[in-house]
Amino acid sequence: MTYCLAMSLDAGMVFVSDSRTNAGVDNVGRFEKMKVYERAGERVIVVLSAGNLSVTQNALGLLDHQAGRDPNQLSLWNAKSMFEAAGLLGNAMREVERRDGDYMRQNRIDPSASFLLGGQVAGEAPRLFMIYAEGNYIESSRETNYFQIGEIKYGKPIIDRVLTPRTSLRDAVKCAMVSFDSTMRSNISVGPPIDVLVLEAGNLKVSMRQRLDEGDPYLTQIRAAWSEGLKQLFVGLPVPPWYDELAARQQAMQAQQ
Q: What are phi and psi of 73, to 5 degrees?
C-alpha cells in the first residue's frame, strides 16, 4: 500500500507521495511513486502511482518505450494538453490490463492500480486528473481541488478542514505533511521516504522538490507539534452540558443513600 496526494491551488500545485510498497516485521519494500516529465518553459507533468507496482511501472514503461521508439508518436513529452496526457496514461492502463490482467487474477494477484497526473503544459492553466484502474479519469475542480490515492482515509480529515483553492503553497505543504503524519501513525504500510514537489502556476518548471527520509528533522518536528497541539486542544474542549447534569443527579442519588 502507499499514499499519494495532489493539490490544485490558485497559486500552483503540490504533489506528495510515500515510497513504501509493502510492510511487515521483516519485509519492507521501497519504490519511488513520483515521476516527473519536465521540459523547462514548455511543460511539467507529474505522475503519482498507487496500487499494483508492476501494473503502474508497466503502464509508464509502455509510454516511455513508445516515445523512445518513435519521437513523433504522441507521448507525455509532446501532448498538447494535460487532458491529452491523461488520456494517454489511461490508454496505457487499459493495454496493461488487456495483456496481464487475466493472468494476475488467475494467480490471485490484484491488478488494480491508479494514478494522479497533474501539471501544466504551455498555453493552458495547471490541471489535475485522477486516473482509475479501468483507464477512465476525472479532473479536479474548485469544489474538489485535491485527489488522494492509496491509503487515503487517515489523512483526509485535516485536508477537508484546511484546504481551499486560495490556500498558499506553503500552507498546503504543511497540510500535506500533517496528512502524511496522520496516515503513517495509523498505518504501517505508509512510510518514508516522502517525496514533495511544488509547482508554481505559470512557472513551467519545478519550483521545489524535496525528499524526506526516515528521521528527517522536519517530519519529527511536525509529528511532535501536531500531537502536542491536538492534546492541548482536546483538554480545552468544553464538557457536554448533559454530562454535568448526569453527574449531578448521580451525586444526589448517592447522597440520599
A: -75, 145
